[in-house]
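During the no-cost extension, the postdoctoral fellow (Dr. R.K.) reprocessed legacy sequence entries with the updated structure-token encoder. One reprocessed record is reproduced below for audit purposes.
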Amino acid sequence: MKNVKLTIAYDGTNYSGWQRQNNARTIQYEIEKALKKILKKDIAIHGSGRTDAGVHALGQAASFIEDFTLPTHKIPVVINNVLPKDIVINSAEEMDMDFHARYCAKGKKYIYKIYNDSIRNPIYRNYSWFINEDINLKKIIEASKYFIGQHDFKSFMAAGSNIKDTIRTIYSINIYRKDKFIIIEYEGNGFLYKMVRIITATLIDINFNKISIKDLEDIIKSKDRSKAGPTAPAQGLYLAEVYY
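Re-encoded structure tokens follow.
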């Protein structure tokens, strides 16, 4: 038996998220279907976590245990000829038998992209959040500091999650401008349901004076979703890396 870790990139535009669903096209379903084709067995993969419909990945991780003869390092070359063009397996490696892509993850990095210009660019419509008003980088960088460290992030978790432990640690938030994009990079030990998108939209609300920076501490302590900003669009979010 082999325990295999896959590193995966995908364009989430045409999918109903990561997790397998009845009557919906998902990333997990397409990968499992392709694995069955190349390994001639039913394979169930376990992702490091779910991504929602429209969310992209540069470095999603998944694992599965199975007995097969194909050399593990050849899986990407073979499977990428079978997968849809918007999903790619970047690497496959054998791990210890107790490895699990979800339960062994020590942290994650997410990237959120905002296209900030007076006129939208249709090329980037599925890969960024278009905002045509000025963004004060200094202001949102200052606001982002309130999220660093260990907090109860319940105010920034969307409805629909049954997670009870809402304490997470954000190690860093790096915000910078690159051409016409505002890039926000988040690193932490884990993130709640839609947490990155809600924090991002909260920072933008602060930019437009809909929320005051001085109220952020109270918003975090309130554990009240209604006090935080809305949820930023899915298409600007990328799961960049999973740390083990």
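The radius of gyration is 19 Å. The chain has two domains: 2-95, 107-243. The remaining legacy entries will be reprocessed before the final report is submitted.
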